[in-house]
Here is the input.
Amino acid sequence: MSLLAVALCAVFLAYGQKGDRPEIIPPEVLRGKDALAADPKHYKLEFENEHMRVLRVTLKADEAVPVHDDRDALFVCIKECHIRLTRPGGRGQDIHLQAGESRWIYGDTRSEKNLSSQPLELLVIETK
Here is the structure.
């Protein structure tokens, strides 16, 4: 069995009854899921050096990416962005930016979903 499967089983067994289970999967269980490795269909590497990495994210309407780890980064919307960032426990943050606008996003374990009826395209400029 994989280490992730063993860890997940241990978490659920440790919390007993359904009502006692944690609301989120502990971050240490999910750590190491890089966005580019977790979803190469939607993430493309544009540039990388010892200081930064630039990823291009493209999502169709209502499309989402799996849970992964993100570093501190600047989100720069190429097209209008209406995106939901969701942590494993379900807590989310909606961001709506016009084309060309940007916002600093702190690193976290999360998924992203395009809330728009239009395709989403943004650059994620990560610090190292």
The helical segments are 3-14, 27-30, 35-38. Residues 3-14 form the longest helix (12 residues). DSSP finds three helices and nine strands in the chain.
